[in-house]
């Protein structure tokens, strides 16, 4: 089962770790020739083939993939916006359940990403660390005994670890408290970003909380700090839900039921409207207005994006066809029994 298909009802949607690595024998990506990049990709793919996990991974040359497939990979968090827009040789090794993606030719040579559903940061880090160690058994990373792992951007040096939680924060967004988080998190070396990380906008009240500092801190120290900050954010979201006045609760409950009605009966639907309505529906499950679903609302959110819709349809869709197809899809989902 893929991480994003797991039924959920908690504020934490996913736990993710990402390790940035470079091979010592090659220049960093900004100065690496195309031939050098292709050599680096062969080296990493070959190193993984020599591990016990090789049969669980498949390789995609991103320069040979169709644009809709690339966009679908972004929508499913398999590749980053940076890798999507990169012009040089690039590829990705993906585990069969999509819990691990090894991006090659990114800002750094290698980005090892592991994602688990819900609150499971330890498993996400353990798996990424295991794969990192397996690769390092046969390849030499760019490493300094004082600075740690060397990276293209100094902010990633040291452990090279970025850990993040994806959270559903509708009440903090509604009350405006979400606007105070960037300043507050910055004091703890953390940051808040949109649904696809750096430079992306939040949709459906979904935010990513991650560390900014990797140098001078051990991996477990970074993860522990992130867990502590995330707990405080979740406590604040839950407090906002408990502190609703009877009138405010009535308004929220009305919006949740209206959202259900629209999703169950709409005939045309945009991505932004769909994300908002699905966010309200997810809140309805979280606060007990509806029974917990037998589906992942976040998976539905991913599937209403353009590339995933077109992949499901098996062809390119016009803008109007996409509005209709998106509405058909969510109508079928919300009518499924819990």
Could you give a short description of this structure?
The chain is an alpha+beta fold.
What is the succession of H and E elements? EHEHHEEEHEEEHHEEHHHHHH
Please tell me the CATH architecture of the largest domain by its name: 2-Layer Sandwich
Structural class of the helix and strand makeup? alpha+beta
* CATH domain topology of the largest domain: Creatine Kinase, Chain A, domain 2
Biggest beta sheet summary: 8 strands, antiparallel
CATH class of the largest domain: Alpha Beta
> How widely separated are the two ends?
19 Å
Name the helicity range: 40-55%
Beta percentage is: 15-25%
List the total number of helices.
12
Number of strands: 10
Q: What is the CA-based Rg, rounded?
A: 21 Å
Shape from CA axes?
globular
Q: Low-confidence parts, pLDDT < 50 over ≥5 residues?
A: none
Structural summary, described in words:
With 338 residues, the protein is α+β, with helices and mostly antiparallel strands. The chain has 2 domains: 3-239, 2-Layer Sandwich (Creatine Kinase, Chain A, domain 2), CATH 3.30.590.10; 246-334, no CATH class. The chain is 44% helix and 16% strand. It is built from 12 helices and 10 strands. It has helices at residues 34-49, 67-75, 81-85, 121-136, 170-174, 181-186, 219-242, 246-265, 271-286, 297-303, 306-313, 319-334; strands at 12-21, 57-61, 91-95, 100-104, 110-117, 143-144, 148-149, 161-168, 190-193, 206-211. The strands form 2 sheets. Strands 2-3-4-5-1-8-10-9 form an 8-stranded antiparallel beta sheet. Strands 6-7 form a two-stranded antiparallel ribbon. Helix 8 (246-265) crosses helix 9 (271-286). The longest helix is centred in the C-terminal third of the chain and has 24 residues, at 219-242.
